Amino acid sequence: MSRDICVHTWPCSYYLELDKRWVPGKLALTSLSLKFMTDKTGDALVNFPLSSIIEIKKEASHFIFSSLTILEKDHIKHWFSSLQPCRNVVFHIIEHFWRELLLSQPGAAVEASPSPVTKGKELTGLMACSQKRLEDAARVLHHQGEQLDSIASGLDKMESDLDVADRLLTELESPSWWPPFSSKLWKMPSDTKPRGDSSVASSKALGKEGVVIRVPAVIFQRTDSHVKPGMLTVFVSGLEIHDSSSSLIHRFEKEDVDDIKVHTHYEVSIRQRFTGKPDIAFRLISAKMPEVIPILEMQFSKKIELLEDDLMLRSTRASSPEEEGYSVRHAASRLMDCARHQEPSGSQEGRLLQLQTSKPLISERDTQELRQILRKLKGLALDSQTELERQDEALDDIATAVDRTTVTIDKQNRRMKKLT
């Protein structure tokens, strides 16, 4: 399964050193490589992996025209000019993907070169991706449980305060308070003394929100030319966009997001609509966006949209890592069943003998890794199931407590009206 997916293309010109002339065409960036194709023939004049780049600079050709230069490891320098919409946009996006490739795990940069991948390694990669997706879902579920616990704690404090109000109302309704003044009326119960501390603690608990994922991104705002590097952070309660100096550009609360459009694997746009004033909209491109999109789908399932013109995204998503892993496992199990229950005969016997002498598809090391990942997946699934059951019970308790608190408040309101 190739990761080399097209991220963006830009109209530009490439300087052909042999002919000493500029050739018009398109510069195409993929997740692992960069190539230039001519407009006239569509041939690729330049095609090199991002891992071979050692320098990206903004320069001027003949001291007049703004250009972008890329230097490779073998000291080959490529000149690109007349970049649209502007040189700054192209520079930030290419630099972002180049840096992310260099900072990624060892061996990721080598993926651009064709190397044989065994079935065991491929299956291990698919299972590891499934494990990461389940870990992200469990993290979201955990933060949701923390919010439910904070709500339940707040309701408990509210019921405690209502008990105090009930005692005070009882004292006011009894004739023993006048005259003389009853000392019990002004004596506050001991459990209400640290109320300030408890309110501070509850506010801290409510203010605490977990970071689900944080990724570097190239941020577009208002126009395609207004671009800056920054960071996208996904919380349980919303989204935050920061610039490269970690200053907050904008925060979207979860209920404020009106739509999220997924343009490609690496590009999404987020919008908040307004009446009578311009909408707040951002477009973000990130090399880590494939890790963010599944989380956005869980957080904003009714507001996210996969654009119909992005056929590659849909076809790739149709064969997601989980589904591929599922189909591979089931195909393997069916083959094993056939091997156990079908009697070899004739040419089948010869093929079976040939298979027995050939090298196994999955090595023992890959099998051990798969067993470890499957054990982790099983543990995560059981923990998620337990947490879901606990949250269902917590929701029932919260609903019961809300009903009980509402009845108590109505009753005390009627008693206070009688006193006035």
TrEMBL record:
Q: What InterPro entries does the record point to?
A: PH-like_dom_sf, T_SNARE_dom
Among PROSITE patterns, the record links this protein to: T_SNARE (PS50192)
Where is it predominantly found?
A: cytoplasm
> GO annotations under biological process?
synaptic vesicle fusion to presynaptic active zone membrane; synaptic vesicle priming
The T-SNARE coiled-coil homology domain covers which part of the protein? 136-172, 365-419
Its localization reads: Cytoplasm, Perinuclear region; Endomembrane system
Q: Is rRNA-binding a UniProt keyword of this protein?
A: no
Q: What's in the GO CC field? A: endomembrane system; perinuclear region of cytoplasm; plasma membrane; presynapse; SNARE complex
Q: Which SMART domains match?
A: t_SNARE
Query: What are the protein's UniProt keywords?
Result: Coiled coil, Cytoplasm, Membrane, Repeat
Q: Does the keyword Transmembrane apply?
A: no
Residues annotated as transmembrane? none
Q: Which GO terms describe its molecular function?
A: SNAP receptor activity; syntaxin binding
Q: Belongs to which family?
A: Belongs to the SVAP1 family.
Name used for this protein in its record: Synaptosomal-associated protein 47
